[in-house]
Write a structure and sequence with these properties.
With 178 residues, the chain is an alpha+beta fold. The protein has one domain: 3-Layer(aba) Sandwich (Aminopeptidase), CATH 3.40.630.30. Helix content is 29%, strand content 29%. It contains 5 helices and 8 strands; from the N terminus they run ββααβββαβαββα. An 8-stranded mixed beta sheet has the order 1-2-3-4-5-6-8-7, with helices on both faces. The longest helix is centred in the first third of the chain and has 15 residues.
């Protein structure tokens, strides 16, 4: 979908690409920066690097996944992906990101809405996602977008750290977006 604005304003569009598309590089670079800045005191930097390549590229390709970028005047300013989760009806959202230079503009919510719509179009009926305990912006986004909190653990607890959420997708999401 391309949004064309009056002269002098920015043009934005969602594009579905491969994780290897050069336009996706800012997403991965900024995610690496975020992970390092928030977690390097509790997670080995090598483990943080490995997190960025934990899943094979094909996991985020059709028919089971997708990788989307929100381009503003041709430059990626936000994005995200999904892959099949434990069962055929559940998509797992990953790598939802908004450029730190463009925050507080609702970009992550728009990406989340787009991913939900695409997952529903691809036949998924449920979303599962997780985020780190030091990402309060993400936690607030998911709670404010109708996701149900399944578990929440911080570092030093018996369970691995992370906040896990789920949400049921409806046919209306596929047709009209979230």
């Amino acid at each position: 979908m391309t949004i064309v604005l009056p002269a002098g304003q920015l043009q934005e569009q969602f594009v579905y690409v491969s994780v290897r598309d050069p336009r996706a590089r800012p997403l991965f670079d900024e995610l690496a920066y975020e992970y390092h800045s928030r977690y390097s005191d509790v997670i080995d930097p090598e483990m943080l690097r490995q997190e960025m390549v934990r899943y094979p590229d094909e996991a985020f390709a059709t028919p089971h996944g997708a990788f989307v970028l929100l381009l503003r005047d041709g430059v990626a300013v936000a994005g995200g992906a999904f892959m099949r989760h434990a069962d055929a009806g559940t998509a797992e959202f990953k790598r939802i990101w908004a450029s730190r230079h463009c925050r507080r503009q609702g970009l992550a919510r728009r990406v989340l809405d787009e991913l939900e719509a695409q997952a529903a179009r691809q036949g998924y009926t449920r979303v599962f996602l997780g985020t780190g305990p030091r990402q309060p912006e993400a936690i607030a986004l998911y709670q404010g977008s109708g996701y149900t909190l399944l578990s929440a653990h911080d570092f030093g607890e018996d369970a691995p750290p992370g906040y896990h959420f789920e949400k049921a997708l409806t046919a209306a999401v596929a047709l009209h977006g979230a």
